[in-house]
Amino acid sequence: xxxxxxxxxxxxxxxxxxxxxxxxxxxxxxxxxxxxxxxxxxxxxxxxxxxxxxxxxxxxxxxxxxxxxxxxxxxxxxxxxxxxxxxxxxxxxxxxxxxxxxxxxxxxxxxxxxxxxxxxxxxxxxxxxxxxxxxxxxxxxxxxxxxxxxxxxxxxxxxxxxxxxxxxxxxxxxxxxxxxxxxxxxxxxxxxxxxxxxxxxxxxxxxxxxxxxxxxxxxxxxxxxxxxxxxxxxxxxxxxxxxxxxxxxxxxxxxxxxxxxxxxxxxxxxxxxxxxxxxxxxxxxxxxxxxxxxxxxxxxxxxxxxxxxxxxxxxxxxxxxxxxxxxxxxxxxxxxxxxxxxxxxxxxxxxxxx
Length: 354
Prior knowledge:
Elements: E1 4-10, E2 13-20, E3 23-31, E4 41-52, E5 55-59, E6 64-68, E7 76-83, E8 92-94, E9 99-100, E10 104-106, E11 113-115, H1 122-131, E12 138-140, H2 149-164, E13 173-176, H3 181-189, E14 194-197, H4 199-210, H5 225-229, E15 236-238, E16 244-249, E17 254-259, H6 265-283, E18 287-292, H7 301-311, E19 318-320, E20 329-334, H8 341-344
Helix pairs in contact: 6-7
């Protein structure tokens, strides 16, 4: 099914949405005035070693970040921001640099080739990568399996050029900017057949997609994005037969309550886990999530298995913590990938990155 990319502005945030005939497939958002720096690569200088437990404070040039783990021996190094600043904390960085492409991820520190957990037949795909000369420093994305050799080679060449630009020496500052929202949804969910973008964003969108090897036709202004994302800005999500989810963020976690309506417990829980997987992704909810499922007498395993299947389409790593508790609670942790939709739209408290 063809995907269309819609790029525009809602309030003070840029929005990029991939849409097909069934509706909204993927979404990314960031504040216009304070763009998300997650994924950006910086030349950093150590400011304080061990200033907090097991972490080092580094200067990125325009802000400080936390580097977890043992203090590095070097005073200047390359780091990549992996978590945005929030809750009064500095952004978090890592020395494990990863550059995402459409079919590959360049990982200069790797001595071999890894595969995404979403990629099937991993050994077969690693063998194919070796035949293409990709023997170290790469992670194969899920899309690798469907790509032709020429596109993979072009992706590898683009990423190799970026890797060559990574130099640790010099003053602290930005080395490679993070992908903008329109590139992020394309990298995670596939190339668009057409692009609809606001006139003042069209040139940037065209340039950034071309950098990924894409040249889709531009078909005019985007659809009403505020209307498109309106269901994601309310805490309630409708389920069949009058049921609903209620999504409530707290400082420590996201609580999701399931109301069955007139549906039976098993049917309500099955619909709920499908809806939760979709909402986590579209709202870009990260961190700890607790789902209060409807009590049922039957085995919980079919519900958990169904949830795992629903999560396979999500590019963010999600870990389910055990099974369902005696109180009907299902706990999980979803990887934080930049700002949530609510943070980007300034509908949740957000710490300014300084």
